[in-house]
Design goal:
This protein has 483 residues and is an all-beta fold. 0% of the residues lie in helices and 31% in strands. It has a domain of 76 residues.
Protein backbone atom coordinates (compact mmCIF):
# COMPACT_ATOMS: atom_id res chain seq x y z
CA UNK A 1 0.00 0.00 0.00
CA UNK A 2 1.40 3.41 -1.04
CA UNK A 3 0.03 6.59 0.45
CA UNK A 4 1.51 8.89 -2.17
CA UNK A 5 1.46 12.67 -1.75
CA UNK A 6 -0.76 14.48 0.73
CA UNK A 7 -1.59 13.52 4.32
CA UNK A 8 -2.80 9.91 4.27
CA UNK A 9 -4.25 7.40 6.74
CA UNK A 10 -3.22 3.80 6.05
CA UNK A 11 -4.63 0.72 7.84
CA UNK A 12 -3.15 -2.68 7.04
CA UNK A 13 -5.99 -4.60 8.72
CA UNK A 14 -5.40 -8.35 9.07
CA UNK A 15 -2.56 -10.13 7.33
CA UNK A 16 1.13 -9.33 6.81
CA UNK A 17 1.12 -5.99 5.00
CA UNK A 18 3.72 -3.66 3.49
CA UNK A 19 2.77 -0.01 3.99
CA UNK A 20 4.51 3.05 2.50
CA UNK A 21 3.42 6.44 3.76
CA UNK A 22 5.40 8.30 1.10
CA UNK A 23 5.12 12.09 1.25
CA UNK A 24 2.85 14.01 3.54
CA UNK A 25 1.98 13.73 7.24
CA UNK A 26 0.65 10.20 7.34
CA UNK A 27 -1.03 8.06 9.98
CA UNK A 28 -0.10 4.39 9.52
CA UNK A 29 -1.57 1.49 11.50
CA UNK A 30 -0.29 -1.99 10.78
CA UNK A 31 -3.49 -3.82 11.74
CA UNK A 32 -7.03 -2.46 12.04
CA UNK A 33 -6.24 0.19 14.62
CA UNK A 34 -8.09 -1.56 17.45
CA UNK A 35 -5.31 -3.18 19.50
CA UNK A 36 -7.64 -3.98 22.38
CA UNK A 37 -9.97 -6.53 20.79
CA UNK A 38 -7.78 -7.51 17.81
CA UNK A 39 -6.93 -11.21 17.76
CA UNK A 40 -4.62 -11.31 14.75
CA UNK A 41 -0.85 -11.57 15.22
CA UNK A 42 0.54 -10.78 11.77
CA UNK A 43 3.84 -8.97 11.27
CA UNK A 44 3.78 -5.81 9.14
CA UNK A 45 6.50 -3.96 7.20
CA UNK A 46 5.92 -0.21 7.51
CA UNK A 47 7.73 2.68 5.81
CA UNK A 48 6.89 6.17 7.02
CA UNK A 49 8.45 8.04 4.12
CA UNK A 50 8.95 11.80 4.21
CA UNK A 51 7.41 14.27 6.67
CA UNK A 52 6.31 13.50 10.23
CA UNK A 53 4.29 10.30 10.55
CA UNK A 54 2.32 8.59 13.32
CA UNK A 55 2.89 4.83 13.06
CA UNK A 56 1.40 1.97 15.07
CA UNK A 57 2.44 -1.63 14.45
CA UNK A 58 -0.11 -2.95 16.98
CA UNK A 59 -0.05 -6.79 17.02
CA UNK A 60 2.52 -9.00 15.34
CA UNK A 61 6.30 -8.83 14.89
CA UNK A 62 6.44 -5.56 12.97
CA UNK A 63 9.32 -3.84 11.19
CA UNK A 64 9.01 -0.06 11.05
CA UNK A 65 11.13 2.46 9.14
CA UNK A 66 9.79 5.82 10.23
CA UNK A 67 11.53 7.78 7.46
CA UNK A 68 12.50 11.43 7.38
CA UNK A 69 11.30 14.16 9.73
CA UNK A 70 10.00 13.81 13.29
CA UNK A 71 7.94 10.64 13.61
CA UNK A 72 6.03 8.83 16.36
CA UNK A 73 6.13 5.04 16.13
CA UNK A 74 4.49 2.41 18.39
CA UNK A 75 5.56 -1.20 18.02
CA UNK A 76 2.52 -2.59 19.82
CA UNK A 77 2.38 -6.20 20.98
CA UNK A 78 4.98 -8.84 20.13
CA UNK A 79 8.65 -8.25 19.23
CA UNK A 80 9.13 -5.29 16.91
CA UNK A 81 12.04 -3.71 15.02
CA UNK A 82 11.78 0.07 14.72
CA UNK A 83 14.14 2.51 12.98
CA UNK A 84 13.47 6.18 13.56
CA UNK A 85 15.60 7.01 10.52
CA UNK A 86 16.26 10.74 10.14
CA UNK A 87 14.63 13.38 12.29
CA UNK A 88 13.70 13.78 15.94
CA UNK A 89 11.65 10.65 16.52
CA UNK A 90 9.72 9.16 19.43
CA UNK A 91 9.82 5.37 19.39
CA UNK A 92 7.77 3.15 21.73
CA UNK A 93 8.42 -0.58 21.83
CA UNK A 94 5.36 -1.31 23.98
CA UNK A 95 4.96 -5.04 24.79
CA UNK A 96 7.38 -7.67 23.53
CA UNK A 97 11.16 -7.91 23.15
CA UNK A 98 11.72 -4.94 20.87
CA UNK A 99 14.71 -3.44 19.05
CA UNK A 100 14.64 0.34 18.70
CA UNK A 101 17.17 2.36 16.69
CA UNK A 102 16.98 6.13 16.76
CA UNK A 103 18.80 6.54 13.44
CA UNK A 104 19.06 4.63 10.17
CA UNK A 105 20.06 1.09 9.18
CA UNK A 106 23.08 2.47 7.32
CA UNK A 107 25.49 3.91 9.87
CA UNK A 108 27.19 5.87 7.07
CA UNK A 109 23.96 7.80 6.47
CA UNK A 110 24.21 10.51 9.13
CA UNK A 111 21.41 11.67 11.44
CA UNK A 112 23.26 14.39 13.33
CA UNK A 113 20.08 16.32 14.21
CA UNK A 114 18.22 13.23 15.40
CA UNK A 115 17.37 13.96 19.04
CA UNK A 116 15.34 10.80 19.52
CA UNK A 117 13.16 9.53 22.36
CA UNK A 118 13.15 5.72 22.77
CA UNK A 119 10.87 3.80 25.18
CA UNK A 120 11.47 0.08 25.49
CA UNK A 121 8.25 -0.64 27.36
CA UNK A 122 7.61 -4.19 28.58
CA UNK A 123 9.95 -7.00 27.57
CA UNK A 124 13.69 -7.45 27.12
CA UNK A 125 14.51 -4.69 24.67
CA UNK A 126 17.46 -3.45 22.61
CA UNK A 127 17.68 0.34 22.35
CA UNK A 128 20.29 2.17 20.27
CA UNK A 129 20.18 5.95 20.11
CA UNK A 130 22.85 6.13 17.39
CA UNK A 131 23.63 9.75 16.45
CA UNK A 132 22.26 12.81 18.21
CA UNK A 133 21.46 13.70 21.82
CA UNK A 134 18.92 11.00 22.64
CA UNK A 135 16.76 10.00 25.60
CA UNK A 136 16.43 6.25 26.11
CA UNK A 137 14.22 4.48 28.68
CA UNK A 138 14.49 0.71 28.98
CA UNK A 139 11.18 0.20 30.77
CA UNK A 140 10.28 -3.18 32.29
CA UNK A 141 12.49 -6.15 31.47
CA UNK A 142 16.19 -6.87 31.06
CA UNK A 143 17.20 -4.25 28.52
CA UNK A 144 20.37 -3.62 26.51
CA UNK A 145 20.79 0.09 25.81
CA UNK A 146 23.38 1.89 23.65
CA UNK A 147 23.41 5.66 23.71
CA UNK A 148 25.55 5.97 20.59
CA UNK A 149 27.06 9.29 19.57
CA UNK A 150 25.99 12.52 21.21
CA UNK A 151 25.12 13.50 24.77
CA UNK A 152 22.45 10.97 25.72
CA UNK A 153 20.17 10.47 28.72
CA UNK A 154 19.76 6.79 29.53
CA UNK A 155 17.39 5.28 32.10
CA UNK A 156 17.45 1.52 32.67
CA UNK A 157 14.30 1.63 34.83
CA UNK A 158 13.18 -1.74 36.30
CA UNK A 159 14.99 -5.11 36.14
CA UNK A 160 18.74 -5.70 35.61
CA UNK A 161 19.82 -3.71 32.55
CA UNK A 162 23.07 -3.29 30.60
CA UNK A 163 23.67 0.35 29.66
CA UNK A 164 26.38 1.77 27.36
CA UNK A 165 26.76 5.51 27.09
CA UNK A 166 28.84 5.45 23.91
CA UNK A 167 30.44 8.66 22.69
CA UNK A 168 29.45 12.01 24.10
CA UNK A 169 28.78 13.32 27.62
CA UNK A 170 25.98 11.06 28.80
CA UNK A 171 23.72 10.93 31.85
CA UNK A 172 23.07 7.30 32.80
CA UNK A 173 20.75 6.09 35.56
CA UNK A 174 20.32 2.41 36.25
CA UNK A 175 16.82 2.85 37.65
CA UNK A 176 14.33 5.72 37.39
CA UNK A 177 15.30 9.33 36.86
CA UNK A 178 14.57 10.07 40.51
CA UNK A 179 16.74 7.19 41.74
CA UNK A 180 19.32 9.55 43.27
CA UNK A 181 18.18 10.17 46.83
CA UNK A 182 14.74 8.66 46.18
CA UNK A 183 12.74 6.02 48.03
CA UNK A 184 12.53 3.52 45.16
CA UNK A 185 12.76 -0.04 46.51
CA UNK A 186 13.65 -2.00 43.35
CA UNK A 187 16.73 -4.18 43.77
CA UNK A 188 17.84 -4.92 40.22
CA UNK A 189 21.58 -5.08 39.43
CA UNK A 190 22.65 -2.98 36.45
CA UNK A 191 25.77 -3.14 34.29
CA UNK A 192 26.70 0.37 33.16
CA UNK A 193 29.46 1.52 30.78
CA UNK A 194 30.20 5.22 30.47
CA UNK A 195 32.74 4.90 27.63
CA UNK A 196 34.12 8.12 26.03
CA UNK A 197 34.09 11.68 27.49
CA UNK A 198 32.73 12.83 30.86
CA UNK A 199 29.56 11.03 31.96
CA UNK A 200 27.12 11.38 34.86
CA UNK A 201 26.14 7.90 36.04
CA UNK A 202 23.69 6.77 38.72
CA UNK A 203 23.34 3.12 39.63
CA UNK A 204 20.15 3.53 41.65
CA UNK A 205 18.97 0.46 43.56
CA UNK A 206 20.59 -2.96 43.22
CA UNK A 207 24.12 -4.33 43.17
CA UNK A 208 25.40 -2.36 40.20
CA UNK A 209 28.66 -2.57 38.25
CA UNK A 210 29.76 0.74 36.76
CA UNK A 211 32.66 1.24 34.36
CA UNK A 212 32.88 5.00 33.89
CA UNK A 213 35.30 4.87 30.95
CA UNK A 214 37.32 7.74 29.55
CA UNK A 215 36.83 11.36 30.53
CA UNK A 216 36.12 13.06 33.85
CA UNK A 217 33.10 11.16 35.14
CA UNK A 218 30.67 11.49 38.05
CA UNK A 219 29.30 8.13 39.22
CA UNK A 220 26.84 7.34 42.05
CA UNK A 221 26.42 3.74 43.13
CA UNK A 222 23.09 4.31 44.87
CA UNK A 223 21.58 1.72 47.18
CA UNK A 224 23.01 -1.77 47.79
CA UNK A 225 26.53 -3.12 47.11
CA UNK A 226 28.07 -1.54 44.02
CA UNK A 227 31.30 -1.91 42.05
CA UNK A 228 32.49 1.35 40.48
CA UNK A 229 35.59 1.81 38.32
CA UNK A 230 36.41 5.37 37.32
CA UNK A 231 38.90 4.09 34.72
CA UNK A 232 40.64 6.87 32.74
CA UNK A 233 40.24 10.54 33.67
CA UNK A 234 39.75 12.57 36.86
CA UNK A 235 36.61 10.97 38.26
CA UNK A 236 34.29 11.52 41.22
CA UNK A 237 32.90 8.25 42.58
CA UNK A 238 30.23 8.11 45.29
CA UNK A 239 29.28 4.72 46.72
CA UNK A 240 26.21 6.01 48.58
CA UNK A 241 24.48 3.24 50.56
CA UNK A 242 25.69 -0.37 50.79
CA UNK A 243 29.09 -2.09 50.95
CA UNK A 244 30.69 -0.63 47.84
CA UNK A 245 34.00 -1.12 46.01
CA UNK A 246 35.40 2.00 44.35
CA UNK A 247 38.45 2.06 42.07
CA UNK A 248 39.71 5.38 40.77
CA UNK A 249 41.63 3.74 37.90
CA UNK A 250 41.37 0.56 35.83
CA UNK A 251 41.50 -3.14 36.59
CA UNK A 252 44.08 -3.53 33.80
CA UNK A 253 47.36 -2.35 35.32
CA UNK A 254 49.02 -2.30 31.87
CA UNK A 255 47.03 0.82 30.94
CA UNK A 256 48.18 4.03 32.63
CA UNK A 257 45.86 6.57 34.26
CA UNK A 258 48.67 8.86 35.39
CA UNK A 259 46.60 12.05 35.05
CA UNK A 260 43.50 10.66 36.76
CA UNK A 261 43.12 12.70 39.96
CA UNK A 262 40.10 10.95 41.43
CA UNK A 263 37.69 11.79 44.25
CA UNK A 264 36.15 8.76 46.02
CA UNK A 265 33.34 8.88 48.61
CA UNK A 266 32.38 5.61 50.27
CA UNK A 267 29.17 6.84 51.89
CA UNK A 268 27.26 4.47 54.18
CA UNK A 269 28.32 0.83 54.53
CA UNK A 270 31.62 -1.04 54.76
CA UNK A 271 33.39 0.11 51.61
CA UNK A 272 36.61 -0.62 49.72
CA UNK A 273 38.30 2.40 48.12
CA UNK A 274 41.31 2.22 45.80
CA UNK A 275 42.70 5.45 44.37
CA UNK A 276 44.82 3.80 41.69
CA UNK A 277 47.30 6.02 39.90
CA UNK A 278 47.86 9.75 40.46
CA UNK A 279 47.05 11.89 43.52
CA UNK A 280 43.59 10.99 44.79
CA UNK A 281 41.24 12.06 47.60
CA UNK A 282 39.37 9.30 49.44
CA UNK A 283 36.63 9.61 52.05
CA UNK A 284 35.22 6.48 53.68
CA UNK A 285 32.06 7.92 55.20
CA UNK A 286 30.13 5.79 57.68
CA UNK A 287 31.09 2.16 58.21
CA UNK A 288 34.27 0.11 58.58
CA UNK A 289 36.12 0.92 55.38
CA UNK A 290 39.25 -0.41 53.65
CA UNK A 291 41.48 2.03 51.75
CA UNK A 292 44.33 1.79 49.28
CA UNK A 293 45.63 5.18 48.28
CA UNK A 294 47.54 3.79 45.32
CA UNK A 295 50.35 5.59 43.58
CA UNK A 296 51.36 9.23 44.16
CA UNK A 297 50.36 11.62 46.95
CA UNK A 298 46.91 10.79 48.31
CA UNK A 299 44.57 12.28 50.92
CA UNK A 300 42.44 9.75 52.80
CA UNK A 301 39.85 10.32 55.53
CA UNK A 302 38.42 7.26 57.24
CA UNK A 303 35.53 9.25 58.75
CA UNK A 304 33.24 7.26 61.07
CA UNK A 305 33.86 3.57 61.75
CA UNK A 306 36.88 1.32 62.33
CA UNK A 307 38.88 1.74 59.14
CA UNK A 308 41.92 0.07 57.59
CA UNK A 309 43.97 2.52 55.52
CA UNK A 310 47.03 1.94 53.32
CA UNK A 311 48.66 5.00 51.80
CA UNK A 312 50.67 2.85 49.38
CA UNK A 313 53.15 4.77 47.20
CA UNK A 314 53.68 8.51 47.50
CA UNK A 315 53.72 11.05 50.32
CA UNK A 316 50.22 10.62 51.69
CA UNK A 317 48.05 12.37 54.26
CA UNK A 318 46.02 9.71 56.09
CA UNK A 319 43.40 10.59 58.68
CA UNK A 320 41.52 7.93 60.60
CA UNK A 321 39.01 10.37 62.09
CA UNK A 322 36.37 8.65 64.27
CA UNK A 323 36.60 5.00 65.30
CA UNK A 324 39.44 2.61 66.10
CA UNK A 325 41.50 2.76 62.93
CA UNK A 326 44.55 0.91 61.60
CA UNK A 327 46.68 3.01 59.27
CA UNK A 328 49.79 2.14 57.24
CA UNK A 329 51.75 4.88 55.52
CA UNK A 330 52.65 2.43 52.78
CA UNK A 331 52.67 -1.31 52.21
CA UNK A 332 54.87 -3.13 54.69
CA UNK A 333 56.41 -5.21 51.89
CA UNK A 334 57.64 -2.13 50.02
CA UNK A 335 61.39 -2.24 49.49
CA UNK A 336 61.71 0.85 47.36
CA UNK A 337 65.25 2.01 47.93
CA UNK A 338 66.57 5.19 49.58
CA UNK A 339 64.38 7.49 51.61
CA UNK A 340 62.70 10.05 49.37
CA UNK A 341 63.39 8.11 46.18
CA UNK A 342 59.71 7.22 45.83
CA UNK A 343 58.11 9.90 47.98
CA UNK A 344 57.30 7.88 51.10
CA UNK A 345 56.96 10.81 53.51
CA UNK A 346 53.50 10.28 54.99
CA UNK A 347 51.42 12.28 57.46
CA UNK A 348 49.16 9.98 59.49
CA UNK A 349 46.49 11.21 61.89
CA UNK A 350 44.58 8.74 64.04
CA UNK A 351 41.75 11.04 65.07
CA UNK A 352 39.43 10.00 67.87
CA UNK A 353 39.38 6.38 69.01
CA UNK A 354 42.08 3.84 69.85
CA UNK A 355 44.18 3.75 66.69
CA UNK A 356 47.06 1.66 65.34
CA UNK A 357 49.42 3.67 63.11
CA UNK A 358 52.33 2.38 61.00
CA UNK A 359 54.67 4.75 59.22
CA UNK A 360 56.63 2.00 57.44
CA UNK A 361 58.95 3.43 54.74
CA UNK A 362 60.10 7.05 54.71
CA UNK A 363 60.31 9.97 57.09
CA UNK A 364 56.77 10.01 58.44
CA UNK A 365 54.76 12.10 60.88
CA UNK A 366 52.33 10.12 63.05
CA UNK A 367 49.75 11.80 65.28
CA UNK A 368 47.68 9.56 67.54
CA UNK A 369 45.30 12.37 68.51
CA UNK A 370 42.57 11.36 70.99
CA UNK A 371 42.35 7.84 72.37
CA UNK A 372 44.80 5.18 73.52
CA UNK A 373 46.91 4.80 70.39
CA UNK A 374 49.85 2.65 69.29
CA UNK A 375 52.34 4.24 66.89
CA UNK A 376 55.09 2.49 64.90
CA UNK A 377 57.47 4.76 63.03
CA UNK A 378 58.93 2.06 60.82
CA UNK A 379 62.10 2.63 58.85
CA UNK A 380 63.87 6.00 58.70
CA UNK A 381 63.59 9.04 60.96
CA UNK A 382 60.00 9.70 62.01
CA UNK A 383 58.05 12.05 64.27
CA UNK A 384 55.58 10.31 66.61
CA UNK A 385 53.10 12.32 68.68
CA UNK A 386 50.77 10.31 70.88
CA UNK A 387 48.34 13.16 71.61
CA UNK A 388 45.73 12.73 74.31
CA UNK A 389 45.31 9.29 75.89
CA UNK A 390 47.61 6.49 77.07
CA UNK A 391 49.78 5.81 74.03
CA UNK A 392 52.55 3.41 73.01
CA UNK A 393 55.33 4.86 70.83
CA UNK A 394 57.70 2.59 68.87
CA UNK A 395 60.26 4.59 66.96
CA UNK A 396 61.65 1.49 65.20
CA UNK A 397 64.51 2.18 62.77
CA UNK A 398 66.00 5.63 62.27
CA UNK A 399 66.53 8.60 64.56
CA UNK A 400 62.99 9.28 65.69
CA UNK A 401 61.34 12.03 67.71
CA UNK A 402 58.87 10.68 70.29
CA UNK A 403 56.31 12.99 71.92
CA UNK A 404 53.93 11.46 74.43
CA UNK A 405 51.40 14.24 74.83
CA UNK A 406 48.76 14.06 77.54
CA UNK A 407 48.14 10.77 79.34
CA UNK A 408 50.30 7.92 80.64
CA UNK A 409 52.53 7.04 77.69
CA UNK A 410 55.05 4.29 76.94
CA UNK A 411 58.29 5.02 75.05
CA UNK A 412 59.78 1.80 73.67
CA UNK A 413 63.59 1.63 73.45
CA UNK A 414 65.58 -0.99 71.57
CA UNK A 415 69.23 -1.39 70.68
CA UNK A 416 70.44 -1.08 67.07
CA UNK A 417 67.40 1.00 66.10
CA UNK A 418 68.83 4.51 66.03
CA UNK A 419 69.08 7.34 68.53
CA UNK A 420 65.64 8.63 69.51
CA UNK A 421 64.74 12.05 70.87
CA UNK A 422 62.15 11.90 73.67
CA UNK A 423 60.11 15.00 74.49
CA UNK A 424 57.44 15.59 77.10
CA UNK A 425 58.43 12.65 79.34
CA UNK A 426 56.60 13.02 82.67
CA UNK A 427 58.34 11.32 85.59
CA UNK A 428 55.91 9.21 87.61
CA UNK A 429 53.34 9.13 84.79
CA UNK A 430 55.11 7.91 81.64
CA UNK A 431 57.37 4.87 81.31
CA UNK A 432 60.38 3.81 79.25
CA UNK A 433 59.81 0.29 77.93
CA UNK A 434 63.00 -1.74 77.43
CA UNK A 435 62.75 -4.22 74.54
CA UNK A 436 65.05 -6.62 72.69
CA UNK A 437 66.67 -8.03 75.82
CA UNK A 438 67.49 -4.69 77.44
CA UNK A 439 67.22 -4.41 81.24
CA UNK A 440 67.59 -1.53 83.64
CA UNK A 441 70.84 -3.03 84.93
CA UNK A 442 72.32 -2.86 81.41
CA UNK A 443 71.69 0.88 81.14
CA UNK A 444 73.79 3.92 81.90
CA UNK A 445 71.88 7.15 82.63
CA UNK A 446 73.83 10.39 82.24
CA UNK A 447 72.41 13.79 83.12
CA UNK A 448 73.02 16.77 80.82
CA UNK A 449 72.23 20.47 80.92
CA UNK A 450 68.93 19.89 79.08
CA UNK A 451 67.97 16.43 80.30
CA UNK A 452 69.33 12.87 80.17
CA UNK A 453 71.16 10.49 77.86
CA UNK A 454 70.13 6.83 78.01
CA UNK A 455 72.74 4.41 76.69
CA UNK A 456 73.94 0.81 76.90
CA UNK A 457 76.60 0.66 79.62
CA UNK A 458 78.81 -2.02 78.05
CA UNK A 459 78.93 -0.64 74.49
CA UNK A 460 78.19 3.05 74.94
CA UNK A 461 75.38 2.85 72.35
CA UNK A 462 73.04 5.82 72.82
CA UNK A 463 69.39 4.76 72.91
CA UNK A 464 67.72 8.13 73.50
CA UNK A 465 68.24 11.77 74.35
CA UNK A 466 65.56 12.88 76.83
CA UNK A 467 64.72 16.60 77.04
CA UNK A 468 62.50 18.68 79.32
CA UNK A 469 62.39 16.37 82.35
CA UNK A 470 61.53 18.16 85.58
CA UNK A 471 62.55 15.41 88.03
CA UNK A 472 65.26 12.77 88.20
CA UNK A 473 64.78 9.57 86.17
CA UNK A 474 64.99 6.47 88.35
CA UNK A 475 64.42 2.73 88.12
CA UNK A 476 60.72 3.37 88.76
CA UNK A 477 60.43 4.97 85.31
CA UNK A 478 61.39 1.77 83.46
CA UNK A 479 59.57 -1.45 82.65
CA UNK A 480 60.71 -4.44 80.61
CA UNK A 481 58.73 -5.55 77.57
CA UNK A 482 57.91 -9.22 78.02
CA UNK A 483 58.17 -11.39 74.91
Amino acid sequence: MFGGKQDDRLYGDRGSDTLYGDRGFDTIVGDNGNNIDLTGNDGDLIFGGEAGDAIAGTQGNDTVYAGKDSDIAYGGKESDLIFGDKGRDSLYGDNGDDSLFGGTRNSQDGDTDGRDLLFGGNGNDLLNGQQGDDTLLGGNGRDLVFGGKGGDRIFGETDPDTLYGGRGSDTILGDYGKALGSTITTDEADLIFGNDTGDVIGGGSGNDSIFAGKGNDLAYGGKDNDLILGELGSDTLVGDEGDDSLYGGLQNQLISDANGRDLLFGGDGNDYLNGGESSDSLSGGNGNDNFNGGKDDDLAHGDAGDDLIYGDDGSDILCGDEGNDTIFGDRGENELGPVGANGQQDCINGGSGDDLLYGNEGQDTLNGDDGNDTLYGGKDSDILNGGAGDDWLFGDGGEDTLIGGAGSDRFVLNSNSGVDTVLNFEVGIDKFVLAGGLTFDSLQINSTTNGYVLQVATTGEVLANVFGVDNAITTLDFVTLSR
